[in-house]
Amino acid sequence: MDHNARNLLPIGAHALSADPRLAYAVQELGRTYGYNYFDDDMVRRSLAEHETSLRRTSRGGLVWAGALLLLVGIVWLVVAASAKPQDMAVALAPPTAVLLLGIAALVRVYFLARSKLRHPFLDGYRHVLAASLAHGAPVTFVPAWLTGRGDGQLEAAPLPPYSAPVATPIHGAGAATVPPPSKPPAVEEYERIAEQGGWHDEAGGALILAGAIGIGYAVFQDIPAAYAAALLIPLGIWIWLAGHRLGKRQQQLSAEARRYLDDLVRAQAAGAVVPELTPPLRKLLDTRL
User: Fold this and answer.
1) pLDDT (tens digit, 0 to 9) for every residue of the chain, 289 residues total?
2) What is the full DSSP assignment across 165-224?
3) Sign of CA dihedral 9, 13, 18, 20
4) Distance between CA 279 and CA 277 in Å, rounded?
5) How far apart are CA 168 and CA 135, in angstroms?
């Protein structure tokens, strides 16, 4: 199923062709960058190749080597400085060199990744997505890797601005006769609860620990009032169980959500205009790519 998720395009050729203004813009972009962005198979294959290449660069051996050199250099610097040698400059020179090598390796990775993000095909495709959004076409999702979006939500290669006025959303009635699959109730429930939780284990454990400490304090300090802390233990257990049930339900529903994503892939391949994914589904899709 993970392989099928890779086949879901941000926008398909049918949606790009639904509005003559957008179709003309995409055609001109294709001429400028030298790619036929109406060819879904080519776009899908090229996106997968560029994503794989970028991930290989950002997670490859040079990254690990740079991180290891940084760690060794920092530890060596601390040890060398704490020894208080007579000639501090001479003692700190080797670890400083190791540290600089680590920094240089990571800087090299950064520029390699940035260079891959600026490939003409990807530059052109980012313009295609920007034009699609400006014309109101249904962009299903914008891959995080395509814009270089990291955990801090900063984008190394954001979608470029597009000067066309925002148009009425395109529903693709004239471009495709295949309707998108309806969203099952289980998927809607997954979207509602997917972002919930994450704190139950920590909160439950903290309450149980606090209750146990309170009981111990009551016993050893002979303070009967401290036995009231025992009430925290069942509360902590209840919160932990609630989180466990929620996590189990999320896992069950995520399977339904993955099947729905696969249905979207098949519908898009058949010519359907796929609607924009909600944030929980986009996050699920990103974890599968």
Assistant:
1) 454 556 889 999 989 998 899 999 999 999 999 999 999 999 999 999 999 999 899 888 888 999 999 999 898 888 887 877 777 787 888 888 999 999 999 999 988 988 999 999 999 999 999 999 988 888 999 988 999 876 555 788 889 887 654 445 555 444 456 788 888 999 989 988 887 776 777 787 888 888 888 787 777 777 777 677 778 888 888 888 888 788 888 888 988 998 998 888 888 878 788 887 888 888 888 775 5
2) PP-PPP--TTT--SPPPPPPHHHHHHHHHTT--SSHHHHHHHHHHHHHHHHHHHHHHT-G
3) positive
4) 7
5) 7
Joined together, the tokens standing for residue 162 give 């597009």
The overall pTM is greater than 0.90: no
Q: Determine how many CB atoms are found less than 10 A away from the CB of residue 64.
A: 11
Whole-number Å distance between alpha carbons of 240 and 281:
26
Q: Write the single-letter amino acid at 280.
A: P
